[in-house]
Here is the input.
Amino acid sequence: MAGADIHHRTEDFRALYSGVLEGLKYFMGTTNDVMVFTSSGTGAMESAISNLFSAGDKALVVCAGKFGERWTEMTRAFGLQVQVLEAPYGDAVTPERVAEALQTDPGIRGVFVQATESSTGVSHDIEAMARAVKGTDALLIVDAITGLGTSHLDIDGWGLDVVIGGSQKAAMIPPGLAFLSLSPKAWERAEPRRSGYFYFDLLKHKKGGEKGESPWTPATSLLLGLAETLRYIRELGRENLIENAQLLAKATREAAVALDLELFAKGIPAAAVTSIRAPNGVSSNDIVKQFKTRFGSIIANGQGSMKGEIFRIAHLGYFDFADLFGVIAELEIILHSLGQKVEFGQGVRRVQQVYVEAAGSQGS
Ligand SMILES: *Cc1c(COP(=O)(O)O)cnc(C)c1O
Here is the structure.
């Protein structure tokens, strides 16, 4: 990334940009067009609304947490007529509810959902939701910012119309790039051209991308970084990146249970992040703070009304068992110092067991 002094209208840059677009298709597992924006993930979320919908269009928002609430706010900000299917924090919205809403109102033009609701650590059943959307006039728009690289999303096979990612999650570089894929069905809706967008013009980005160019000055340093992590993902294999996150998630959950902690997610837990309830009488503020002050480890608090109630341990991208052994050992010490009864090593032992079971006899 320190090689950032690369001009964006040169052959060097065109080779870099084309390689990144190809690498993103591999990472996402799709043959659909992929576009990149210099923005955080929300920019790509906004582009899906502004380029594919008009004010007054009916939309269905699947909302199971803070990021679902972002879909609700954004679709409303663009004047869409929004119906929200809500689930309490920690729960998921079932695909049956989506199917029912689509049957009741065939005028719905789009279904907005999170693959992984990172605020609660819950996953949605995207495959079943895609089946419900298929054959309707609606587009399925998936915020997969933490779903990509942590779960098996078959974009082409399931027919996911828009899938959105961000650079700072399993793509393993700092924030500042967003990307998304568009299905042919979604492209049909990008025409006729609407008003209400300019920077996030999907068609301009598609046409630019075909020539290896970004319509505006892109974040070249981030693209250089992304090219490297995408090379690493290719070397590792996208399936292995996903399975790594899934195995670490399983080990984290089992360690939490071994420590008598309650998992916050009901239904399918996310592989990107595990959310855990603070024990009775303990604030997760103190747990998060001690991770930082005692060990220099960063874990996340709950957001909104979940702040103080839950804490979240991420395990996606560059994260491995060596990290998890440390994090769980730290957690045991922190719980002990907060007056909880802890048998040291109980959580760590469970992580070791999950590792050994998965590594098998080869120990690889
Ligand atoms: C991290 C995250 C985002 C982030 O959006 P930004 O614009 O990059 O802040 C959006 N959705 C989900 C599900 C996320 O996990």
